[in-house]
Design a protein that fits this description.
Elements (H helix, E strand, L loop, with lengths): L20 E3 L21 E10 L13 E4 L2 E8 L12 E8 L4 E2 L3 E2 L12 E4 L5 E5 L2 E3 L2 E5 L12 E3 L7 E9 L3 E7 L7 E6 L24 E9 L5 E10 L6 H4 E2 L4 E2 L5 E10 L5 E2 L12 H8 E3 L5 E2 L4 E4 L5 E8 L6 E9 L2 E10 L7 E4 L5 E7 L3 E3 L19 E3 L11 E7 L7 E5 L11 E9 L5 E11 L7 E8 L13 E13 L5 E11 L7 E7 L13 H12 L3 E5 L11 H21 L1 H4 L1 E11 L1 H11 L13 E7 L19 E6 L7 H14 L3 E6 L10 H17 L2
Parallel strand pairs: 30-31, 39-40, 39-41, 41-42, 42-43, 43-44
Antiparallel strand pairs: 1-2, 2-36, 3-4, 4-5, 5-6, 5-7, 8-9, 9-11, 10-13, 11-12, 13-14, 14-15, 16-17, 17-20, 18-19, 20-21, 20-22, 20-23, 24-25, 25-26, 26-27, 28-29, 29-32, 32-33, 34-35, 35-36, 37-38, 38-40
Helix pairs in contact: 4-6
């Protein structure tokens, strides 16, 4: 039994497409049954450019996220672009959005969402609400910004006319970060004004129409006498969405430019406020507004510098500094760990550190050198327990004439070893190559896996920065999609975005077909309903268009609706599942069955009719296998709610009320929030029954999550293979999480259908 995590960034193989770059790796694999041309190839990723005319932070660093949201099988990406490539230095760009189709690996046309501006802080962030409407917020730098909402579900439209202005979130926002959190609420965490102001959050429970915040801000370092002390912060939600993990660094903003305040005793010279110090951690309870340190101690908010030093500091860096705050990943226990860059023997020498808990203590493990304190990188943990760090690296420290805040770069001494002063505005926050480093021992030691930099023959002399995963609405990294931006000219706004797409799409796991053939209302049988009337039993077929593979696996899908007359084979989430798996290469068949006005008056009779009809559908599928191009020994049975109850009984019941009860060919059960109540339970699980994947919302009040736990106990006692996918905090039919659990189902089914 396994509990699949969402994040899996380790994928393989490659296919070369026009306009893409390709990278090589040291590993390859073969997979398949010989009939479906699954051959191994070397290398493992493609890189696709998008957008033009970006200025510095075309894709923002980790203080301001996300710049992508993955929704209904598409990635939506926002960035600043459209700059005049003949311009120089701080130049105008516009907020823009583009859609990426992972199946076709193509970008849509770019849509411009606002007017030009030369402030890179105005770069956009994006999220999706529970109605699948896209939200974009841009123009935030001690200002409310502009909040836009798409008029159509999961659509960027073709112009600004396809968007409407959303509600103001707060009167002054800087560095917004957005997540969907527990209770399907939306969170925006941000700095309230300039450098020395507080950090806080707002939450909406009505899809962004109204926003409320806590009684007290989370931090305000200079609020109790520590004049002009400030912080930079990174944040990430807990797996259940109740808590927000916040990590930050601290620095004296020194708006007075007092030379004595710049002095760093470690380096025995004045250091600009381009370097921030120490690591601090707090956890915010988004239900109670309580803020605690790592040990659970309740904090007095807003947290000032003295309280932070005394109770929140997890690493005293002793004068070593960083520009960017750490990236956050949750370890195998759900605790936070951090990827941090830090200066070393001089302020021109840096290393990346993995900061994690080991035997109850914070440990700092060196990963690799960095060439700048502002290199913004990403770390993830896959479902094999392997950490992946995506790093910006270079051979020399990059310096410019630009410095943070009120500082003047001429005030500070620089080393001359491994040092390059380009003087360029685009270079002021570092940049270099992109490398992936991995750790097999929980972050203690690291090794280089591969270079993810675009082909240098296509992009000679380019630098890259601000690596980030494509994420879903909850902030969870999507398998195999990573992005960053790059530039060549040290001053011109001529940057491009780059999307790294891992591997060749793998049939039956990934969506490999964009178009489907759909046949509707096919008669597969006749039955007499509870009213004594004859009734045609109808089904719909979803198959991949243009597919020449024969002997494909099939999926028999059974709709929900409480056994009443309110639903049929066209139920929305059944159609979504059918389309999801037909795009993956399955032939999906959605059936009707006999329903009635008052099913609870006779549960046994209701279930008996439904099971007879489901068996008719299964027999029809086997008998039609040659015509459909289906392997009748590779059939998955799935259903949702009442359909899930039917599917469970079908797969685990041994005798029928009429005819032979033939379950041959069933390789797996997909139970979507349908584990039966006792009165609908007419099955008995056997050790040789099909394995099952069960998806269920933990807060389901229609079909209790405990029903699934009871089914799991029964399967576990027999040693029957299963996987339980709990959707934390979700109620009945959590189909908005489809992009998450469909991949879980695909991964579960793949070895079962490939073994046949």
């Amino acid at each position: 039994m396994t509990m699949r995590s969402i994040l899996t960034i380790l994928l393989f193989a490659v296919i070369l497409l026009p306009g893409s770059c390709t990278g090589k790796a040291s590993e390859q694999r073969t997979e398949g049954d010989g009939s479906e041309a699954n051959t191994a190839t070397e290398a493992d990723f493609q890189i696709y450019p998008f957008g033009e005319g970006g200025q510095i932070k075309m894709l923002y660093d980790r203080r301001q996220r996300p710049q992508s949201v993955y929704l209904n099988g598409m990635a939506y990406i926002v960035f600043n672009g459209g700059g005049d490539e003949e311009a120089s230095g701080r130049s105008d760009t516009k907020p823009m959005i583009v859609q990426y189709n992972p199946v076709t690996r193509e970008f849509s046309d770019v849509v411009t969402l606002g007017p030009p501006d030369n402030d890179h802080h105005y770069g956009p962030v994006i999220w999706a609400d529970t109605r699948d409407r896209l939200h974009v917020l841009y123009g935030c730098h001690s200002s409310p910004g502009t909040h836009l909402v798409s008029k159509e579900k999961a659509s960027i439209g073709s112009s600004l006319d396809d968007w409407e202005v959303g509600a103001e979130i707060a009167p002054s926002i800087s560095y917004p970060t957005a997540y969907r959190v527990g209770g399907n609420r939306q969170l925006i965490y941000y700095r309230t004004q300039g450098h020395i102001s507080s950090w806080t959050y707002r939450i909406s429970d009505d899809n962004g129409k109204t926003w409320v915040g806590p009684e007290n801000d989370v931090t305000d370092l200079d609020s109790k006498g520590r004049f002009e002390w400030s912080s930079y912060q990174c944040k990430f939600p807990s797996e259940d969405g109740r808590y927000l993990h916040v990590v930050y660094t601290a620095y004296d903003d020194n708006r007075k430019r007092d030379s004595a305040r710049y002095y760093n005793p470690r380096y025995k010279k004045n250091i600009s406020n381009e370097w921030k110090y120490n690591l601090y951690y707090v956890k915010v309870d988004l239900e109670t507004e309580e803020v605690t340190n790592f040990d659970g101690g309740i904090m007095d908010c807003p947290i000032d510098l003295d309280q932070a030093n005394a109770r929140c500091r997890i690493w005293d860096t002793e004068g070593r500094g960083a520009g960017i705050p750490p990236d956050i990943v949750l370890d195998e226990n759900g605790d936070p760990a951090f990827l941090h860059v830090l200066s070393e023997e001089s302020t021109e020498q840096h290393n990346y550190y993995f900061v994690h808990r080991v035997e109850g203590e914070w440990k700092q493990s060196v990963i690799a050198p960095s060439n700048h304190q502002w290199n913004s990188c990403h770390v993830g943990l896959d479902d094999q327990g392997i950490y992946h760090a995506y790093l910006v690296v270079g051979d020399t420290y990059i310096d410019t004439k630009y410095a943070e805040g009120m500082s003047d770069v001429s005030d500070f001494q620089k080393e001359e070893t491994n040092y390059l002063n380009t003087g360029g505005y685009m270079d002021k926050h570092g940049g270099g190559r992109i490398e992936e480093w991995i750790s097999f021992d929980k972050g203690t030691t690291w090794e280089l896996r591969r270079d993810l930099t675009p082909d240098t023959t296509l992009y000679p002399g380019w630098r890259y920065n601000n690596v980030q995963a494509v994420t879903n609405a909850y902030g969870t990294a999507v398998d195999g999609l990573l992005m960053y931006y790059g530039w060549k000219d040290k001053d011109a706004p001529a940057a491009k975005g780059f999307l790294v797409h891992e591997g060749t799409p793998q049939r039956y796991v990934d969506r490999v077909f964009d178009q489907l053939d759909i046949q509707k209302d096919i008669v597969f049988g006749e039955a007499v309903n509870v009213e004594g009337e004859k009734q045609d039993l109808l089904l719909d077929i979803y198959s991949p268009a243009g597919d020449d593979v024969k002997n494909r696996p099939a999926m028999l899908l059974i709709h929900g609706g409480g056994f009443r007359l309110v639903q049929d084979k066209s139920q929305s989430y059944i159609v979504k599942i059918a389309r999801e798996f037909a795009q993956r290469g399955y032939v999906c068949v959605s059936i009707n069955y006999r329903v009635r006005a008052n099913p609870k008056d006779d549960p046994e009779g209701t279930m008996s009719h439904a099971l007879e009809d489901a068996m008719r559908g299964l027999n029809w599928l086997r008998e039609s296998s040659d015509e459909l191009g289906v392997d009748k020994s590779r059939i998955v049975v799935g259903g949702g709610s009442a359909g899930g109850m039917i599917a469970v009984n079908l797969c685990y019941k041994d005798e029928g009320d009429s005819g032979e009860w033939d379950k041959s060919g069933i390789v797996a059960l997909v139970d979507l929030w349908g584990s039966p109540w006792p009165e609908w339970n007419f099955y008995k699980v056997a050790a040789d029954d099909p394995p099952a994947i069960i998806v269920h919302g933990t807060d389901d009040t229609t079909v209790s999550y405990n029903n699934s736990l009871d089914l799991v106990k029964e399967m576990e006692s027999l040693g029957l293979h299963y996987e339980l996918v709990p959707i934390e905090g979700a109620g009945h039919t959590p189909q908005r999480r489809m992009d998450i659990f469909a991949m879980d189902i695909a991964h579960f089914l793949h070895p079962l259908i490939m073994d046949k």
